[in-house]
Design a protein that fits this description.
26% of the residues lie in helices and 15% in strands. With 541 residues, the chain is of the alpha+beta class. The strands form two sheets. Strands 1, 2, 3, 4, 5, 6, 7, 8, 9 and 10 form a ten-stranded mixed beta sheet that branches. The protein has a two-stranded antiparallel ribbon with strand order 11-12. A hairpin with an 8-residue loop joins strand 2 and strand 3. The protein is globular, with a radius of gyration of 28 Å.
């Protein structure tokens, strides 16, 4: 039973559902436990190909996805939501670009697969990169002839003399078009690289990762001035809902450079060898031009902050901004931790200098127990290649539409499909904003016709954490006065004891010995000293 359970753990959700339906049909019951109304129809035989008759090539793909419906990028056997990797696997298998022996099991090991980042549940990406060895139309050579330069195996299709020059666009499979036909509309393949280097790794060859965390100004619904509680008004510098963008920018700039970010991440106790030092190339607050739908009620004096606050509120409201961060690699939840602290600064609850304090690990060795920013507004914006020390592993992207314009602008082109998706969401936004404008203009709340009507809101601080609404927290507790979490060493020691070791140091030594033994078995003639594996964890928000 245990072996069968483990077999099913890597199955896709669709495959598991089909298996259940098959078992129910065999037992004469439907999903509700009742006999089926009609016998189950035979499943149409799927088209299969003989992979031995085709060459393969290593291809890098650039893709984009909206992560709200997904449980993260990486496939998890125990996830409640589908993952991006699972959807990609199904599309690659159905397109016969890969031919696994067990197509229902998500297992990329045989396809030289690598990914640039591992976004968490709800996080989106507009520049994610993966590498896969896929089927190619490039002809195979006859047995005994040299292997193709891109790694195609020997075959029996044509001789070297008969083989003409292969064109990557006229002769090759239309990878992007094939995959986009099979993927959900919120996952799109944007480009592919015909010249992917043989030793390329989407993770290790990445020079820079860029993230953007989007938010609105105001951050949440600002209560009318006449209803604000005077106790709260005395303790906050800024009217609830509004953000001090300049203070946020000053705080964001403090992240630039090389720092120990242990107070701006979530600790994974299983990775005791992790190095918390990261280099941030750029960190800033940027306004998105011409992106918002106007809500005229925000221009009223009742809803605007006091002019003495010095906030720049020129132009159409609400405005859209984003936290822009560039770096080589990031820790688990690092961007969301950074955004959470910056939002506290923007609300006037913390001073920008709190960033300096938290980056000083000697003064603050334990992270305050603050709430992470929400995951949905975070986007892995782009991934830049190659590393400076390996310029030969650059990627020359071919974007959809550059091969043939109809792939971008045709009836089934990428832009045409995305217009349909965008318009659907835009109409939802437009109708919601029109309804909001009607609601905000209909009632005169100063009348207070009910004798029991309250005169002011409860005395509680409302905080913004990146989500769609505020969170009441009562009396705000300053960040440096919050309870502290365990140090990373304490996390690691606890995990090591759980696994039967005395402490994390003993577990590290054991792990190093295992690595050395594996290397000795793989290459016994090489006697390399044990090397501790340093985890370079990509930012996952």
């Amino acid at each position: 039973m245990d072996s069968k359970r483990s077999m099913y753990q890597r199955w896709t959700r669709d495959a598991l559902i089909q298996r259940i339906q098959l078992l129910e049909a065999a037992s004469g019951l439907d999903a509700g436990g009742a006999p089926p109304e009609s016998p189950p129809q035979k499943k149409k035989a799927e088209r299969k190909i003989d992979p031995s008759k085709y060459s393969t090539r290593l291809v890098a793909f650039k893709l984009a996805y909206l992560g709200k419906r997904y449980g993260g990028f990486e496939f998890s056997a125990h996830g409640n939501l589908p993952s991006i990797e699972e959807e990609l696997w199904k599309a690659f298998v159905k397109a016969c670009l890969i031919s696994p022996e067990k197509p229902d099991e998500v297992n990329w090991d045989a396809w030289e697969y690598s990914k640039c980042g591992r976004t968490d549940r709800g996080v989106s990406a507009f520049g994610q990169v993966i590498v896969v060895r896929v089927r190619s139309n490039r002809p195979l050579l006859k047995k005994g002839k040299p292997m193709q330069e891109d790694g195609g195996e020997e075959g029996n299709e044509v001789s070297a003399e008969e083989q003409r020059e292969f064109n990557d666009f006229a002769d090759e499979l239309q990878y992007c078009k094939m995959l986009n036909r099979l993927l959900p509309p919120d996952i799109r393949i944007l480009a592919w690289c015909p010249t992917t280097p043989a030793d390329f790794s989407a993770r290790h060859d990445c020079r820079e990762r860029q993230y953007r965390y989007f938010f609105t100004q105001p951050a949440f619904y600002p209560a009318p001035q006449s209803m604000e509680n005077p106790q709260i008004a005395k303790t906050t510098k800024i009217k609830g809902g509004w953000l001090d963008i300049e203070a946020m920018r000053a705080a964001a700039k403090k992240f630039e450079g090389t720092h120990d970010f242990r107070n701006f991440c979530k600790i994974d106790p299983c990775k005791a060898n992790i190095n918390f030092e990261r280099k941030v190339f750029e960190s800033d607050i940027v306004e998105v031009e011409d992106s918002g739908t106007a809500l005229p009620f925000l221009d009223g004096d009742e809803f605007r902050p006091d002019p003495s606050s010095g906030l720049d509120l020129q132009g159409k409201l609400p405005k859209i901004y984003y936290l822009h961060v560039r770096g080589s690699a990031f820790l688990w939840h690092q961007i969301r931790c950074m955004a959470a602290v910056i939002f506290l600064v923007g609300q006037g609850l913390e001073d920008p200098s709190v960033v300096d304090r938290l980056l000083d690990i000697e003064a603050e060795p334990r992270r305050p127990n603050y709430v992470l920013a929400e995951e949905t507004p975070l986007v892995l914006w782009d991934c830049i290649f190659p590393r400076p020390d390996k310029p030969e592993n650059a990627l020359n992207w071919v974007y959809i539409g550059e091969d043939t314009p109809t792939s971008q602008h045709g009836v089934t082109g990428l832009a045409t499909i995305m217009w349909t998706y965008w318009r659907e969401k835009k109409m939802e936004e437009l109708l919601a904003s029109q309804l909001f404008n009607i609601i905000s203009s209909q009632a005169d709340t100063s009348l207070r016709k009910c004798p029991k009507a309250t005169t002011q809101l409860p005395a509680t601080t409302r905080t913004f954490e990146g989500g769609d609404k505020d969170r009441p927290v009562g009396k705000y507790q300053p960040l440096l006065q919050k309870p502290r979490l365990s140090t990373p060493e304490e996390f690691f020691d606890k995990e090591a004891r759980r696994k039967g070791y005395a402490n994390a140091a003993e577990k590290r030594e054991a792990d190093s010995r295992k690595i050395a033994e594996k290397r000795a078995q793989a290459a016994p003639e090489i006697c390399a000293p044990p090397i501790e594996e340093v985890a370079l964890e990509e930012a996952v928000g």
